[in-house]
Design goal:
By secondary structure, the chain is an alpha/beta fold. Helix content is 35%, strand content 16%. It has 9 helices and 5 strands. Helix 7 links the parallel strand 4 and strand 5. The longest helix has 11 residues. The radius of gyration is 18 Å and the shape is globular. One of its GO terms (molecular function) is S-adenosylmethionine-dependent methyltransferase activity. This is Methyltransferase type 11 domain-containing protein.
């Protein structure tokens, strides 16, 4: 019988103990992509004005929040996730909240100037509800910056063997770029721009 992984098997350990080495490994993938997302949307230099409010929706371990705080230290950030996150341990100007992204009931309509969501909507249940809720809490004229995993692996496998079926981990409608665009437009986002990043 295997002894297991004490970091992963201890469900409370991620919150109670600072597993810095484990976090560093997990952050290696989303942190550089979060930085690329920030560069892509060309945020103005005045982002750290006191009246700008940013939402990191589905913040997870806080990779996007950390990138935002590093680029604009005075920025007001609200970071939400369905489970306790690590970002409140490291970020000074961040309010964190455990929240279901399908129903951000504690947030007023048209509240955030910028909404960021990285690699959450393609993995979460009811992604269309998530998109609608992000539209509700983002101000008219505000910006949603969304990152999702594409699914080239499945496409490559199907070219070799048309019978290939992958595990249904991600929602198919939120991994294909054109379907992501259609889903955002259905949620009433305007001027949707797609940018595809290749990652090693």
């Amino acid at each position: 019988m295997s002894a297991g992984n004490p970091v992963l098997d201890d469900v409370d350990g991620w919150d109670r103990i600072g597993h810095s080495q484990a976090y560093a490994q997990v952050e290696r993938l989303p942190a550089p992509l979060a930085l690329e997302l920030l560069k892509t949307i060309k945020i103005p230099d005045n982002l750290d004005r006191l009246d700008i409010i940013v939402h990191d929706n589905g913040c997870g371990i806080g990779a996007m929040t950390s990138v935002l705080e590093s680029s604009s230290p005075r920025l007001q950030i609200q970071a939400t996730d369905a489970s306790p996150s690590k970002c409140d341990e490291e970020c000074l100007n961040v309010t964190t909240e455990i929240a279901d992204s399908r129903s951000l009931s504690q947030t007023h309509d048209d509240w955030f100037d910028y909404t960021f969501s990285t690699f959450m909507i393609c993995l979460a249940p009811e992604p269309h509800r998530l998109a609608q809720e992000m539209n509700r809490v983002t101000k008219p004229g505000g910006t949603l910056a969304l990152a999702v995993w594409a699914d080239p692996w499945t496409k490559a496998c199907k070219q070799v063997d048309g019978r290939h079926e992958r595990l249904r981990i991600m929602d198919d409608g939120w991994t294909d770029p054109e379907q992501v665009k259609a889903g955002l437009q259905e949620a009433r986002f305007k001027d949707v721009v797609l940018v595809t990043e290749k990652w090693p």
